[in-house]
Description:
36% helix, extended
Amino acid sequence: xxxxxxxxxxxxxxxxxxxxxxxxxxxxxxxxYKVLKNKKLLEHRGKSKKKTYNRPAPLVALAPNQIYSWDIxxxxxxxxxxxxxxxxxxxxxxxxxxxxxxxxxxxxxYSSQLIERICEWEGIQKQQLVLHSDNGGAMKGATMLxxxxxxxxxxxxxxxxxxxxxxxxxxxxKTVKYCPQYPSKPFxxxxxxxxxVRNFVNWYNNEHLHSGIKFVTPVSRHEMKDGEILKYRxxxxxxxxxxxxxxxxxxxxNWDKIEKVFLNYLQKEKNIDISLAS
Length: 278
């Protein structure tokens, strides 16, 4: 049936309902697909080009203030059905939260104002920064895109409906929501929400030892102090091994600095040497 002249150009998702319209049931769609696969006939059907899903070009940060990731998440309010919106921007190289704000609405005007302030705080020059986000209205709105163009910031977006294209912001929001400090009760006001986030950011940036950057604080790495911290740790371990070598069956812990942080890369591309602009 699938290879007949009438249906040869159609996929099982169309063949099955067409047959049903004629009062005919042969098999389910999944059964059609299994048979076609077994006969090595599971290829693109029809004259149109096969749909492709290209992964975004990989980017790599070699230093702070080269690639930022940002997103918006909900914070519960004391009013049922009402939420506050946490805007948060992170440097993927250092994991430092470079800017944040809690607002009552999700708006491209607010995100535009916030990225302008962040670029001023961090001294961002034109064509220095790539800003990555998902495809929300606050990210791709005309006002936001115009602001990025004015600032000379290159916009980068996730693929539609692909959640793991923005992993750094997703991981950050998980830390926000599941850290011990996160309140068990909803925020009573916008001011209370902003005050809590302010304390969280201070802890996260200055005290939190981040597992993704060899357990140094984001501020230490953002200020390029992590190299000396990790060299000292390495020396401590090597001296401990010299004093009591029987405690180690192999090498000491790897305290080497992470030099490159990739965004949108395949596992096999980890060691590629790729420029920021790619």
